[in-house]
Amino acid sequence: MPAVLFEDADLLVLDKPSGVLVHRGWGHDRVTLVDMVQRMLEEKVVHPVHRLDRGTSGVIVFGRTVEATRTMSEAGAMEKRYLALVRGQTPGEGVIDHPIPRKVGGPRVEAVSRYRRLGFVETEPREVSLVEVVLETGRLHQVRRHMKHISHPVIGDTSYGIAALNHGFERSHGLCRLALHAWSVTLVHPSSRESMRFVAPVPDDLALPLSRMGLIVP
Asked: What pTM, to 2 d.p., does this model score?
């Protein structure tokens, strides 16, 4: 079971490992994160407030009631910060305003991300940047698609990245996963209205390869 970062009558906040599928509708895994949470809480219905891709690790929030889930799902209710290792040297900071779909096959809608570079290193098979990305909207594969849009795809991304480059980082540094981590979520508690921030430490399967490259993990 993923580590529990917070739990009360309204919310369950978990630290999801890379490789775990959140919801069965997104794949055909025998066991998903929703299955694990149902068993843990002994509840038949649980509600992920937002999505994380299979390869993405980090903070994910579940609502334990319909009302809590609805409140948390409202636009602007949560601030989500990601760490990503991307190809090349990015500008120091920037805003990506590029429409993308909410769901597969859907129409493109407004999508905005802000990023800042935390580190840069020249390494094999090529130079990379460690960036923090803050989402102003929540769209399908937003971080991955936006970084690809500005020609800095996330390392390890099998959909929007470059296979040869991904294999090179696996051989050189042991990076065998998508280099994307949901670092923190800040939200207003649906009942107490208290502002709360949850942080998931960068896991070893990402932190160790970053360290081998000479990048400092926040």
From this structure: 0.94
